[in-house]
Amino acid sequence: MTHANGDEPISEAAKAAHDLAEAGGEDGYFDATTGLFVMTAAYHLRRGACCDSGCRHCPYS
């Protein structure tokens, strides 16, 4: 799996953090590598549209 913008693969740890956040109904999680807050695919779907920022879990790209 790669980022929505195709730059680099998503780590197994990020996939696990994403799945845990979605299972818990959270909007996102903190990436252990970058320290950045990353929105889940479910959050993006609730937003209703793509913002064209190349988000990691964007379901629209």
Describe this structure in words.
By secondary structure, the protein is α+β, with helices and mostly antiparallel strands. It has one domain. The chain has two helices and two strands. A two-stranded antiparallel ribbon has the order 1-2. A hairpin with a 6-residue loop joins strand 1 and strand 2. The two termini are 13 Å apart.
Short description:
The chain is α+β, with helices and mostly antiparallel strands and 61 residues long. It is built from 2 helices and 2 strands. It has one domain.
Q: List the strand order in the largest sheet.
A: 1-2
How many domains comprise the coordinates?
1
Shape field: globular
Q: What is the H/E string?
A: HEEH
Class derived from helix and strand content? alpha+beta
Count the beta strands.
2
C-alpha end-to-end distance: 13 Å
Helix/strand layout:
Blueprint: H1 12-23, E1 28-30, E2 37-39, H2 41-47
Antiparallel strand pairs: 1-2
Keywords:
alpha+beta; 2 helices; 61 residues
